[in-house]
Description:
The chain has 2 domains: 2-89 and 277-295, 3-Layer(aba) Sandwich (Rossmann fold), CATH 3.40.50.720; 90-269, 3-Layer(aba) Sandwich (Rossmann fold), CATH 3.40.50.720. The chain contains 10 helices and 12 strands. It has helices at 12-22, 70-73, 90-108, 111-119, 143-154, 177-186, 207-211, 230-239, 260-263, 279-295; strands spanning 2-6, 28-30, 40-45, 61-64, 84-85, 135-139, 158-163, 173-176, 190-193, 217-221, 242-247, 267-269. The radius of gyration is 21 Å and the shape is elongated. NADPH dihydro-nicotinamide-adenine-dinucleotide phosphate binds at residues 67-68, 140-145, 163-165, 194-198, 200-201, 222-224, 248-249, 272, 274-275, 309.
Amino acid sequence: MALLFKGLSDNVEEWRRELTRRIPDLDMRIWPDVGDPADIDVAFTWQAPHGEFKRYPNLRAILNLGVGVDTLLTDPDLPRHVPVARMVDPSLTRQMTTYLLHAVIHYHRRFDHFAALQREASWKYERGRNNGACRVGIMGMGVLGGDAAQALRGLGFAVAGWSRTAKSIAGIEGFHGADGLTPFLARTDILCCILPLTAGTRGIINADLLRRLPRGTRFVNISRGAVVIEPDLLAALDLGHIGAAMLDVFTKEPLPADSPFWRHPRVVVTPHVAGNTTPATAADQVAENIRRARAGQRLLNQVDLDVGY
Ligand code: NDP
């Protein structure tokens, strides 16, 4: 029994330390030096090349090192009988919530406007605005969207969430499905997207959806670039229908140097940094899932391969 590990090179030893602290006899093989593929019973990987998993005849579980499983699930050779778990890491959740709090506060408190005034050495007093007058809409009310929604509600923002299935969360207005989308968009001043990328969400932020938002809505995307039709977003920004955007994810990453997003006066670009998995806080779930896989039990945070998240 051995664990296949493929992560980023900068914290391999940290992962080894955290996992062997929890499973002292763990045999951890660092990709691509995996030894005999028949030894591998659990894979703990990020962005493994397509075709990788079919090499391991005794694989019992695939543990995704990140949250989004979109790249993994598009592997045409993914062994469909092997359960897949996504990452739920309390530190990553807090990082994502912090990003969304920053974005909402940035626009609501008009820090973009004051930065522009400062460039002109222009002192223009204005009154602050009540948080309750700012309507935040969160697309995707799972682990990450739910946490951000609660934090924003705690600060008094008027928060609504949109999800695939109905939800009832105290103090948060719930919308779901295709029928709930138009009323959800119509009551939104700052739209935050934290949906997974699936067949149902690819390209969902398009010209038709953007038109249903009030004029001047600010848009924040920390989900995946491909949920957005980028030319439609740029056109809406140029028309002023979308007032501004803060974007962490793009259809092509790294964002090409000639992308209009880099230099757009009302766009803030960050390089896919909204949240990272932290070994010290994520290792409990990974160790528990290794144990569960070996005991033939259902994994924590197991992905529904049919819905794609
Ligand atoms: P969850 O699986 O916990 O939640 C997903 C949410 O999206 C659920 O509320 C779900 O609805 C909703 N949803 C899914 N499909 C649809 C649909 N077709 N229509 C409406 N709602 C839908 O995921 P997480 O919150 O843990 O993560 C979300 C995504 O965040 C990840 O998949 C990843 O792509 C992205 N991410 C980005 C990072 C970054 O650094 N930028 C870092 C980490 C994650 P329901 O509740 O009904 O199931």
